[in-house]
Amino acid sequence: MVIVQQTSIGTWVCGQFCTRIAPISDNCDDAAEREQGNRFLPRFDSAGLLTAIAQDSASGEVLMVAFMDRAALDATRTTGRAHFHSRSRGRLWMKGETSGHVLHVESILVDCDQDALVLKVRPAGPACHTGERTCFYRELAGDGLTRVEG
Amino acid sequence: MVIVQQTSIGTWVCGQFCTRIAPISDNCDDAAEREQGNRFLPRFDSAGLLTAIAQDSASGEVLMVAFMDRAALDATRTTGRAHFHSRSRGRLWMKGETSGHVLHVESILVDCDQDALVLKVRPAGPACHTGERTCFYRELAGDGLTRVEG
User: Which of A131, B79, B100, B135 has the fewest Cβ atoms surrounding its Cβ within 10 A?
Assistant: First the structure.
C-alpha cells in the first residue's frame, strides 16, 4: 500500500519506507531525524539516485562505485546481490548478470544524510568489467596514471 | 595555454590535461584509452561532476563520499587537501574549512572509466560534520538503522 502524505516539509510517498518527492529543502528537525535517528530514510537526488560504494568486506578495498535508484536498492536488499541503476543504459542491472561476478552483500552502511551507502561485499570474481579485481587499479602520479600493484 | 581541438569523438579543451566538453558518446578507441591508458582523462558527468570517495589510508575505512568538479579536483591536487563541490550550496568547499578537520590526501586512485576517484587520506579529525569518525556510522538492520560500534 502506498500512502501519499503532504507535510510542511514536502510530499511523501510511504510504502515499505518513506520517500520525499518534493524538492529538498531540509529543515532542522528533518536533518536531525535523518542524521541521528534509527529510521532508514534514503535520500535520492533530483535524478532519483543515491551513491553506492562496494567495499570488499575482507580486504577493505574499494571495488567500485555506482548509483542506485529505488528499484536497485530494493532488489539489492531482497536478493542480497548488488544491483545498480545504469545512467548510460537507463535501466536496472545486477552486477555480474552476464559475467557471473556478482557481489554478495553482507551488510549495508548508511551515511549521515542518507544519500550514500557502503555495501560490504564478498565478490564472486573480479569486480571490474576489465577483469581487474577492483575498478580502482590505477593511481594518479604527476599528470599521468600508474598501475597499482597488489 | 588552453587548446581547443575538435575530433570525431567530440570537442576537447586541453590545458594541463584534456577534457572533452561535447556530449559523451564514447567510441571503442576512446573507452580503451580511458581504461587501459596512462593518461589522466577525468570524465565529469553532465552536471560537471565526478564521484570522490575518501578512504582512511591507515584503517581502510570509508570516511565520506562527495562530488568534485574541475575546480575541486584542481584544488585538491594543488593543496594536498580534499576539496569538493557542494551541490546544495553550489560552491567549492575544502573539507574542514571551518572545523579544521581537513583530509590530507596521500594518493588518488582512478577507476576504469575515470569518472570516480578514491582519495587515500589521513584525517586531521572526525570526518563527519556530526563529530563521528566516519559518515558511515550506521548499518541497515531490517528496516531500521543501528549504530556501528568501532
Answer: B100
Residue B92: C-alpha distances to residues A128, B3, B74, B84, B97 (Å)? 31, 25, 11, 6, 11
pLDDT one-digit tens code per residue, B39-77 = 999 999 999 999 999 999 999 999 999 999 999 999 999
d(CA B135, CA A59): 20
φ, ψ at B9 (rounded to 5°): -110, 15
Put simply, the answer to whether A40 touches B112 (Cβ < 8 Å) is no
- Is pTM, for the whole model, over 0.90? no
In angstroms, what separates the C-alpha of B82 from chain A's closest C-alpha?
A: 15
Q: CA angle, corner A33, sides to B53 and A27, nearest 5? A: 90
Do A121 and B18 meet the contact criterion of CB atoms below 8 Å apart?
Answer: no
What ranges in chain B are assigned the alpha helix state H?
28-36, 70-79
Count of alpha carbons within 13 angstroms of residue B37, beta-carbon side: 14
Q: Residue A52: which of A18, A86, A100 has the closest Cα?
A: A86
Residues of chain B found within 8 Å of residue A77, distances taken between Cβ atoms: 140
Q: Which has the minimum average pLDDT: A49-63, A126-140, B11-25, B88-102?
A: B11-25
Please say whether the beta carbons of B107 and B120 come within 8 A.
Answer: yes
* Chain pair A-B, CB pairs under 8 angstroms: 115
Alpha-carbon distance A6 to nearest alpha carbon in chain B (angstroms): 22
Taking an 8 Å cut-off on Cβ atoms, the answer to whether A118 and B62 are in contact is: yes
- Selected residue of A145, A147, A148 to mutate for chain B interface (largest B Cβ count, 10 A): A145
Q: Looking up cell 528537525, which residue turns up?
A: A29
Q: How many CA atoms lie within 13 A of B137 on its CB side?
A: 17
Which chain A residue shows the shortest CA-CA distance from B87?
A45
